[in-house]
Amino acid sequence: MTPIAVTVDRKDLRVALSGPAGLNTVLELHVGNDKYPAIIKEVQRDPVKRNVR
């Protein structure tokens, strides 16, 4: 499978990652009519506030 770059709303991401697995949570991405399991490879953070961008 080819990697796909996606943009996710910060609040939705915070809710999805608030479980015990944290950044290791397996997410389900819906692309068209297909569903794919996914894990986060990279998160961009504000260098001062450390908030997810």
Written account of the structure:
This protein has 53 residues and is of the alpha+beta class. The chain has one domain (1-45). It has one helix spanning 10-16, and strands at 27-31, 34-38. A two-stranded antiparallel sheet has the order 1-2. Strand 1 and strand 2 form a beta hairpin. The chain is globular and about 40 Å long. The N and C termini lie far apart (26 Å). The mean pLDDT is 86.
Topology overview:
Blueprint: H1 10-16, E1 27-31, E2 34-38
Antiparallel strand pairs: 1-2
Rg, rounded, reads: 12 Å
Run of helices and strands: HEE
Number of domains: 1
Coarse shape: globular
How many strand segments?
A: 2
Helix content: 10-25%
Biggest β-sheet description: 2 strands, antiparallel
Summarize the structure.
The protein is α+β, with helices and mostly antiparallel strands. Helices cover 13% and strands 19% of the residues.
What keywords describe this structure?
single chain, alpha+beta, two-stranded antiparallel ribbon
